[in-house]
Amino acid sequence: MEHQQSKSFPISHVIGFVVSLVLTFAAAGITLKTNLSFKVIMWIIGSLAVIQAGMQLFMFMHLREGEDGKTNLVNMIYAVFMVIVIVVGSIWVLTSGHAAH
Amino acid sequence: MKAKITMEVTIMSIKWDEFFITGDPLILGSQIAIVLTMIGAVAGITYLKKWKYLWTEWLTTVDHKKIGMMYIISAVLMFFRGGMDGLLMKAQTAQPEMGFLDSQHYNEIFTTHGVIMILFMAMPFLIGLMNVVIPLQIGARDVAFPQLNALSFWLFFSGAMLFNISFVIGGSPDAGWTSYFPLAGKEFSPGIGNNFYAVALQIAGIGTLMTGINFIVTILKMRTKGMTLMKMPMFTWTTFVTSILIVAAFPIFTVALALMTFDRLYGTHFFTVSGGGMDMLWANLFWLWGHPEVYIVALPAFGIFSEVISTFSRKSLFGYKSMVFSILGIALLSMVVWVHHFYTMGSGPAVNSFFSITTMAIAIPTGVKMFNWLFTMRKGRIKISSAMLWALAFVPCFVIGGVTGVMLAMGAADYQYHNTLFLVAHFHYVLIPGVVFAVFAGLYYWWPKMFGFMLNEKIGKWHFWLFVIGFNVTFMPMFFLGLNGAVRRAYTYSAESGFAPLFMLSAIGSIILAAGFAVFCYNIYWSIRYADRNISSDPWDARTLEWSTASPVQFYNFAKLQEVKSLDPFWHMKKKNEGLTLYDSEIEEIHMPSNSWLPIYMGVIFGIAGFLLVFEWHIAAALAAIGIFAGLIIRSFDYNEGFHVKKDEIHRIENAWRKTEGEVHDHVS
Amino acid sequence: MIMSAKVDTSLPLEYQTEQDRMNILGFWVFLGAEIVLFATLFGVYGVLYERFAGGPTHKDIFVIKDVMIQTVLLLTSSFTMGIAIFEMRRHNLKGLIIWLVITLALGAGFLFMEINEFIHYAHEGATMQTSAFLSSLFVLLGTHGAHVTLGIGWATMVIIQLLKRGLTPTTARKTFIIGLYWHFLDVVWIFIFTFVYLKGLVA
Amino acid sequence: MKKILLSLTALLPLLVLSGCNMVVFEPQGPVARSITDLINWSLIWMLLVVVVVFGLFGYIVWKYRERPENKDYEPPEEHGSTLLEIIWTGIPILIVIALTIPTVKTLYALEEAPKGYEEKEPITIHVTSADWKWIFSYPEQGIETVNYVNIPEDTPVLFKMTSASTMQSFWVPALGGQKYTMPKMETEMYLVADNPGSYDGQNTNFNGRGYADMKFEVLAQTDEKFNEWLADVKETAPKLTESEYDDLLKPTHMGRLTFSNTHLEWVNHADPHSKAYTNPELYRGHGYQGKTFEEEDNYKSNQPNVMENHGQGGHDESEDNHGGDHNEH
Ligand code: HEA
Ligand code: HEA
Ligand code: CUA
Ligand SMILES: [Cu+2]
Hints:
The complex is a heterotetramer. Chain A is mainly alpha-helical. Chain A folds into two domains: about 1-65; about 65-100. Helix content of chain A is about 70%, strand content about 0%. Chain A contains three helices and no strands. Chain A has helices at about 10-35, 40-60, 70-95. Chain B folds into two domains: about 50-595 and about 640-660, Cytochrome C Oxidase, Chain A (Up-down Bundle); about 595-640, no CATH class. Helix content of chain B is about 65%, strand content about 0%. In chain B, helix 15 (about 420-450) runs antiparallel to helix 16 (about 455-485) and helix 16 (about 455-485) packs antiparallel against helix 17 (about 500-530). In chain D, a hairpin with a 6-residue loop joins strand 6 and strand 7 (about 180). Chain D has three domains: about 1-65 and about 85-110, Orthogonal Bundle (Helix Hairpins); about 125-265, Sandwich (Immunoglobulin-like), CATH 2.60.40.420; about 280-320, no CATH class. In chain D, the strands form three sheets. Chain D has a six-stranded mixed sheet with strand order 8-5-1-2-3-12. In chain D, strands 4-10-9-6-7 form a five-stranded mixed sheet. A two-stranded antiparallel sheet of chain D has the order 11-13. Chain D is of the alpha+beta class. The chains are: A mainly alpha, B mainly alpha, C mainly alpha, D alpha+beta. The structure holds heme-A (HEA) (2 copies), dinuclear copper ion and copper (II) ion. One heme-A (HEA) sits at the interface of chains B and D. One heme-A sits at the interface of chains B and D.
């Protein structure tokens, strides 16, 4: 609400768009055109994805806008915690012990 | 019964001879009873000309109090069904080699018992109480999204009915409430029984998820002036945290059930034996939801006990802050303990150690709550009312359940307890004191607020003693049976096992338990008929805002939205004699939402689509699903702004209850 | 709805009434639930992604060129949706509707590609029933695709309301919420792009 | 107060009734013993917790209950006590730590051959659970048994476990804890019996209609007797054929069987790429039947609900219609 109403050119959107395209192609390039190990590639492109998602959240979705901005932030942090628990937890549990064939 | 029906009756490619469950007197009896009840209900309502009343006052209502009551009524009915299942199981295992139920039948019964008790009894009972109480406790006029709230109820109701109908049509699910794969898959359960599980729970689960969202927003945004988070009543706090748990956990179940549906209906390979599926993945997803689920039912119960204990000790809650932090701690920890339900799956000592530690850690915040409750009572003046009795009995009983939980939590020891009756005893010792005692306490406590009269205290004590004694006699023996090697879900056992005396004792206990429940039903009946209607709006001398308005509560809850300065605001208002009177000048028009037929329509259409899907009649189900989309579109274009309550009407209603207030007698014996 | 509709005109349209603020907050909470839902699907995919059961593998079926086009389509649509909301905040109804329509067109393009992709997979003998890997792949992609489809239908309803009623606090709020939804689907796609397609194609 | 007394008095006769002969507290081998030790350790602490809470509860409720004399007593305003709250957070933390350390130790220890037996050459037995029977293969000895397993006393036995159908759990409470058996996977467990004797084993993980009777016997024998038995089996027991094995895997109850070869010759269900022996036709029960999906590797049977008698002591249970005759075993 701070900005925009007055501005006539959506500069932050354009920047966000360009950056997201750059990140996307960078990730594709790293995956397809380099000989890094699987692990390294996954860490790099994973981080790029997280950066890009964060950008969408803050620049396009105005996560912190309005009187509930803080609530939204806590909500998203909690959601990320859940994502880690579910994804990392499931994979850990189901590929340990006897399942590590 | 050995004769197999070979004649296939197929009309419109539906196998009618399989459609209705035949050949069992119990089920035939239920079928007849259901049809008769339905005819009776329809005839009765028609005769009394109550259709219009039913439709406008209940079926289309968006009033949180009425929705809450409908939840509670459904929950009591479901308790009855689930309790009958429990009694049948106890009858079957009362003696070795009993022939009362065969194994298939027993399997169906514990499955429906578990599902119904947790999802269609405990959940709606607690959600019902939340619905009635939360807006009142935070001094609001309704929840944030009243129409969504009605939709939640109707989806729950539709799911519950769909699940229950499996008893007489199509066949009940029979793979346990956990429905482990591969057993629950088409490879080993080709009948449609488990489709009922997948579809009915899905429908009800969506309703629950929306309840969670609704209450989060309600509590965040609709608290009355001055009520900061740290001034919220404890029941509001637990509801808030429970809602967060619902929103965090139910989507996992949604996915798990959807994948189950795909495996069963469309031949995918998530959990199957063939095609690379992984059975352990189901267990993992189920408990990722299932463990938080048990705290989803436990936390609101803790909130109810906090209110009841503090009110009847005439003291504010001891250690309010540490109570809040322990709720948050329990909620957070409850997301990272799920593996304790399958230590025996062999994920290795590192995994098992991690989850043993997180699980045992839950004992710490729970202990904090325990001691806080005890010290709330210390130096108090403990009034032993029916509501308080339940809270008192909760403490020792739940500690038994809790410490046996900690024993189960020790991964290595669990190798000996797992899937035995020791485990069954543990979870009944947490679920019954933790949930059932709590809803009873809540019901006795808030009954006058809901209906304007009290439940009988004397009958209430009978209800209490029978139930609590019966409960202990039923489930205490199971600990010892389990330690002696008796496994769960076995429909019978041999005479040589030596289990017989304890099983018999347990069966006797369940009869006492059932008697207790019957007394409870009688109490409701007696009180409706005979209880004094002339009671005060604050019969317990209570502490929170719901007691500052009329009993039964007027449809707009509060004529004037209060301002709150401290914890236990109503207590302090009474002490300081502040804010209790309403001046004419303070009355303003009140804006209220209108009734809507959409929620019940959506419930019905979801039920129909779900039913068709269960029977794998895909085209018909898809057609019904169009009705769902139609409902969504209609909702999108619905701009009904509600209505305004005129000042005169508020005047009239407020005068009516405020005038009599001084003249009533205190009914608590 | 309960609070009498006190209007705070200093805020953007969609935030002006208490009920609208509650709807927006409620939608954010709902998005939290959606994140958990997709996380579960990703977890399932992460567990099953090498269980081919003798069927086709990632490299047999993924076509990077098509995936890149899909990605660009969706990224662009997220950007145009941002512009649409930007126009809404400038009270430019016409601009809003134009950008919304562009967004939906891009979304439809994405869907078209995805359906083609599925048909292509089926031709390669890769169906939902073939293996655990493919079951989890189809359900993950399909859930996202179903969300996009729903989003298109929903946004169409909102456009009709905008045409009928113009920009009011209520229609603005509805538009804002569909905007959030649309961006969210893009966020999910970023992770599908990375952890499904790129991961499957790492040498 | 009365209620605690009541539940306690309910407890007493129970203890007497069940005697103290609860199988979990009478371990017959080092594995079970290590778990029992852990359980006993936990019981001490749990008893302490129970005593403290019950004591406090009884005292407080009794002392501060409302009586006619204290009707006028108005309780003080009290909001908490940091000191007390720290105490009842701290002590449980200590208790949890006291429980954690031996738990983790035992968890790790249970994965290995038990202490003191590391030197002894373990024998390996493959366990294959099927609906609703237990198949034991001795690959080294080349024999196979159904629903009973003989082991030498005082020797670590490594059970390599898998399932030919649903998920089951292998449990011999007198000898040790349980572990799941799952199709296309292999779990492992060591057990040792101190002395010759017969121990009950059973499935604890619910797997359908025949679950309650899915039991087996573990017979621990002296080395001599065990070798005698082995020799005897090799000489006299028939050979298992593939088609007999297919029949064996159908969902039935049966008595004991003994063979002088093992099914591992043609299939090891623990192999993730092994054939899946599933046939929904055999599991049709009452109620409406949905559509089932044919798998390539299913063993095809076009005769639903037909099961021949097989093997010695075979006891088949064909279609168990609803309301059927399950009570005769
Ligand atoms: C309301 C429901 C509820 C609640 C509150 C709990 C509470 C707990 N549960 Fe329970 N549980 C179930 C419902 C519940 N459970 C159900 C339904 C199942 C079985 C599902 C199925 O398989 O069908 C189950 C199964 C279950 C298992 C799986 C066992 C198995 O399958 O083999 C385990 C294992 O760790 C466990 C542990 C615990 C623990 C540690 C707690 C703790 O939260 C308890 C904490 C409380 C206390 C400890 C008492 C008070 C504390 C003090 C007085 C402080 C001092 C105490 C100490 C330091 C110890 N539970
Ligand atoms: C909140 C949850 C809850 C509650 C309240 C209960 C309550 C009861 N349960 Fe339980 N139970 C579960 C949740 C619950 N249960 C779960 C999750 C399982 C696991 C399922 C599975 O394995 O998949 C289980 C399993 C389970 C088993 C184990 C089955 C097995 O493994 O073999 C047994 C066996 O005795 C049992 C018994 C009972 C009994 C006797 C009651 C009693 O408390 C019921 C008391 C109520 C009544 C008796 C009401 C009816 C009253 C009457 C009919 C009286 C007449 C009235 C009038 C005339 C007005 N339950
Ligand atoms: Cu179970 Cu691998
Ligand atoms: Cu749990």
